[in-house]
Design brief:
Blueprint (H helix, E strand, L loop, with lengths): L6 H10 L3 E5 L3 H9 L4 E4 L3 H4 L11 H14 L4 E5 L9 H15 L3 E3 L7 H9 L4 E6 L18 H17 L3 E5 L3 H10 L4 E4 L7 E4 L1 H4 L17 H17 L14 H12 L1
Parallel strand pairs: 1-2, 1-8, 2-3, 3-4, 4-5, 5-6, 6-7, 7-8
Helix pairs in contact: 2-4, 4-5, 5-6, 6-7, 7-8
Bound molecules: 3-methyl-2-oxobutanoic acid.
Length: 282
């Protein structure tokens, strides 16, 4: 088991200038591997809708989907801080419902903190969830749950007014009590400005290198999901090809009867076998 990561550890990393490492996970094996790799924060993201459930976006992901996957990750992931993503419409209709659903992710899922998308508009919601004792991570810039309103999965903060809005969002979330903020798909210089504008860690995904940490969707990073690969993703391996090659080799072995080989088969003592043969003949 890797070292236990706490919310104060996350805040202290920025003070000490130590870059934070965050990845997504959706199941027990990936949770175990993230634990073994001593990743600081593991997000059970609603990206599971796309990379695990095969949906076109994240909007259809439900509270039940999230709780199911958070539980599996938490069983494997003991050291990293595990963050559960609030799905679309689980925090948008009322503050009361937002607190209730954030509590469900922690009580039923077992995660350590929650993440929700939105800037200044969600300050009262974030404030109330934090006051209820639930650590919150913000998410600004490109917010996939409202991607269609933002014109698709596109870079945000292109002009001065839009960039200023993102800085104001970060400041507002900081004042509301978030312990860190995910900043997605903005120009690298804006990533630096946002990180300098607040004291809470800014975790970039397509926000350049001058932020306080990075997050990637693990299925993108290991080449398991290739429907589309965003510009900001670095693929460290092509696990999809490795799995596909193994499946094709297994298929061939089954078809030509070279699997199972004797070493994969259980033996029966000779005496029992001859008794059995005699019984079958009768
Ligand atoms: O759902 C998710 O995986 C996310 C990351 C892209 C940060 O929100």
């Amino acid at each position: 088991m890797s070292k236990l990561v706490t919310i104060p550890d996350i805040q202290q990393a920025k003070t000490e200038g130590r870059k934070l490492v965050m990845l997504t996970a959706y199941d027990y094996p990936m949770g175990l591997l993230a634990d073994q790799a001593e990743i600081d924060m593991v997000l059970v993201g609603d990206s599971l809708g796309m990379v695990v459930m095969g949906l076109d976006g994240t909007v259809e992901v439900t509270m039940e989907n999230m709780i199911h996957h958070i539980k599996a990750v938490v069983r494997g992931c003991k050291g990293p801080l595990v963050i559960g993503d609030m799905p679309f419409m689980s925090y948008n209709t009322s503050i009361r419902e937002a607190i209730y659903n954030a509590g469900r992710l922690m009580k039923e899922g077992g995660c350590d903190a929650i993440k929700l998308e939105g800037g200044l508009n969600f300050v009262p919601t974030v404030e109330s969830i934090v006051k209820a004792g639930i650590p919150v991570q913000g998410h600004i810039g490109l917010t996939p749950q409202t991607a269609s309103a933002l014109g698709g999965f596109k870079m945000q903060g292109k002009d001065a007014a839009a960039a200023m809005q993102i800085i104001d969002d970060a400041r507002g979330l900081q004042d509301a009590g978030v312990f860190s903020i995910v900043l997605e798909a903005v120009p690298a210089p804006l990533g630096k400005l946002v990180s300098e504008a607040v004291t809470v860690p800014i975790i970039g995904i397509g926000a350049g290198s001058d932020v306080d940490g990075q997050v990637l969707v693990t299925h993108d990073m290991v080449g398991l999901f290739d429907k589309f690969v965003p510009k900001f993703v670095k693929q460290y391996t092509q696990i999809r090809t490795i799995i596909l090659d193994a499946m094709l080799a297994y298929k061939k072995d089954v078809q030509d009867a070279s699997f199972p080989a004797p070493e994969h088969s259980f033996k029966m003592p000779g005496e029992t076998l001859s008794q059995l043969k005699a019984m079958i003949k009768q």
